[in-house]
Amino acid sequence: MQNSIDLRKKRRWGETLIQASLFIAGAFSILTTVGIVYELGKEAMNFFAQVSLWEYFTGADWNPQIDQFGIWALLNATLMTTFIAMLVALPIGLSISLYLSEYASHRARRTLKPILEVLAGIPTVVYGYFALTFMTPLLRGIFGRDVVDIYNTASAGIVIGILIIPMVSSMSEDALSAVPRALRAAAYGLGATKLETAVKVVLPAAISGIMAAFIVAISRAIGETMIVAVAAGAGSNFTFNPFEAAETMTGHIVRISGGDLSYDSIDYNSIFAIGLTLFFMTLSLNVISQRIVRKYREVYE
Amino acid sequence: MTQIKEKEGFADNLPQRHRSGGFWSRLFQISTGVGIVALIALLLNITNSAFGYVATENKIDPETLAINGIPLEQLHPIDLTYILEQNVSAGFFRAQNNEKPFEERTREEIYDLVIERVVEPEAAATWSLFDSLVHKDKINAEVAEKYPNAELSFQSWINGSFLLSPQSADPERAGVRTAVLGSLWVVTITLLFAFPMGVGAAIYLEEYAGDKWFNRLIQTNINNLAGVPSIIYGILGLAIFVRGMEPITSGAFLGPVDPTTANGRTILSAGLTLGLLILPLVIINAQEAIRAVPGSLRQASFGLGATKWQTIWHHVLPNAIPGILTGTILAVSRALGETAPLVVVGASTFITFDPTSPFSKFTTLPIQIYQWTSRPQDEFRNIAAAAIIVLLIILLSLNVVAVYLRNRYSQKI
Amino acid sequence: MTENKITYAIEAADLNLYYGETLAVRDIDMQIEKQKITAMIGPSGCGKSTVLRAFNRMNDLIPSAHATGSVLYHGKDIYDEDVDPVEVRRRIGMVFQKPNPFPKSIFDNVAWGAQINGYQGNMDELVEESLRDAALWDEVKDKLDKSGLSLSGGQQQRLCIARTIAVKPDIILMDEPASALDPIATLKIEDLMHELAKEFTIIVVTHNMQQAARVSDFTAFFNLGEDHAGVLEEYDVTSNIFTNPKKKTTEDYITGRFG
Questions:
Q1: pLDDT at C61 (0 to 100)
Q2: pLDDT recorded at residue B79
Q3: Is position A38 within any domain?
Q4: Spatial separation of the C-alpha atoms in residues C216 and C193, rounded to whole Å
Q5: Which of A18, A160, B17, B74 has its CA 20 to 30 A from that of C100?
Q6: Residue C201 pLDDT greater than 90, yes or no
């Protein structure tokens, strides 16, 4: 009797089932995005049924009690804190990354990097506490109590900057260390000093990665919530004075949703409109940054 | 020795180049120092508020409450109940008695109630740790002058009763018990959702997904979700879990619930919201861990006639699991520290009872810190600082576990 | 090496090079003739690149590396405490194994080194002159603003040579400059080396014996000693090394019996 070997494909139902569930797990993240856009969009539509887009995008006053819904009152405060945060985080973060990647000894790097990781791992509400109980008194001590309000965008912005320093420095350092050693050797071989090598050769070669880090940092600062909720103040205020209280977009969402918020009120709907605005702002920044990162990877790999 | 000539056509600019090199190098170092100083300032600032002198004033001197020369703390429960009845409103006394008759209460319970309601000790003033250490004499003088009836004592705001007491409107009495338990409940839900979902997605993307447009879309989408501000997840959770799925998240599908309690603003909603929030992080970390498993291992397994899932289950996952766990722990510690999305989802501002099920109202440690920080009184700043220390210790221990896992298993592959 | 009055371009005396605790190269004594091409050959791992890099203190960039003994340049030991390595490297330039142009324009690649070193003349002229000397001018004169990375491997290497000579060094160190290139590009580099030797002193490390025989005036043969540290086995006029080696190991190596 001859045994024929069967090499034909068999249906393995178990394998198929597992693969299907794994696919669902993978595709679930798409649902999250769809959920964000759909839910935020739906409620935002309700909001814009009552408030004109024109008013929303051009108005500089946000007073729901008297039906004023100009996003610039909140957006301006968001941009203020973000700008101040960048003034702190970008130069310091970039300097740290240059120090770590070009100057620091192996040992110094091994002590410094965990410290930065600890800074990055502290919850933002703790930074909020820090802003209110340390930075604000410090600013009031320096500039005078009558100049600096108890709640102000400067203090919140500076502390957001501190929060973001580790992110900027670690992303920039990644970009700097991706620059081939051979380029540094070439620069030294031509008689360049350490600074000239770092700033005129390595830095330009890593510039796109650093730009990407900066953009992500901006996006992070725009979305930062707890620091501004604690330290920047309640109540919208269109002002360019960093020592005055002003409510940011995120701060406003937190404040009005913290109380008893009834569904389908204009306040409820406005959360979604602001949230959608915030989502598109940060999403576009993140997409731009990812594009840049992909581009610079192609150069060296 | 021949003198080396300066190079023809080139300026002798070296001293100046070295000067600017030194200047910038010092600047880079100082910037790095700023990061460290910020961390130290933050930690010192918290410690400074978490310990220090407190001047406590009693509304009624406990000595005046002594009956027949027996001091308050040694009185019989019946006498204590009598004192209570004399000093509080009749309504409150009745309400307390209805809740739990005084005859059934222990002496300690009634004594605590007398202290809380009759003696009413109150922090008249508090001092920071720095002041307490450096200006002790000044504090003594100030107390003697301004608060002649007050008792001055050095207090660690973080102490046993702080850890074990529930929320309270009185900062002297408030604790983090409710909040810590709430955090644990919420994070458990988060983990139950995000871990299987995240690891499943990572396995799909690393082992099954080909280079098709849809799979690339999934990957891009995950990277983008990781950058969405956390408050957006809060809004999403409010719309979907709290409102859209209220019958489920309120527990109503299991039977009638008390409508006055939570609606959809429950531990379940909060946990799922944070689950969505950390899902991209879990996926990205798990992907890295899976990618680190050498391809030769897979080939060896396939070469022995194993199916794809057998290969993954028996070879890829066991080697990737330390990395996956490390990444998950880091993601969970992110969830433990999140505040903003939970405020939006509807954390309760004041609950004094322990959560008992996923359908309970919730508060978490960061929420508690936020609420206490937002109060203007100094004492609340003190307990906020104490709660921050509790939170940081929890996060730090999680990180230690993660680092241990990473080091323990990193040499294996 | 015959007449005493010749002053050498650079000379190593009792030079020992270490990586951490490990002795990599031992007791090197060699004198490099001015405006000649000196080739360094030997089996891989024998430390010839390490010695080359010791001549302009490029080894400083490796934290664990250090040297004892001396390298005399114009009568001054470049390892003296008071010597600035930057000063050394602007006089003793280097071309690397793999072409490593900066991600800048061709023009900037050549001009950058001269610029940071305070060149006072006309930069356009210097760039043209350097590119001509590197036999690259005709190929790139119409695209000086294009990225240096857009060139072919051989062109990139000549660009790296152009950028080195723009700084007007005394000595050019070349670390296997043609090993990453195809035979035609290699030939161009070798021709170029002959031209450059009229003006510069060249020291070249190569693993290609034919190349050493073709281009060099002097050849140094390095070998691994018994303690696994590199040693200078034999150093002579190139024709002597290849036709009449004094040592058995040298002969074995050049006839291909090992290495």
A1: 85
A2: 80
A3: no
A4: 9
A5: B17
A6: yes
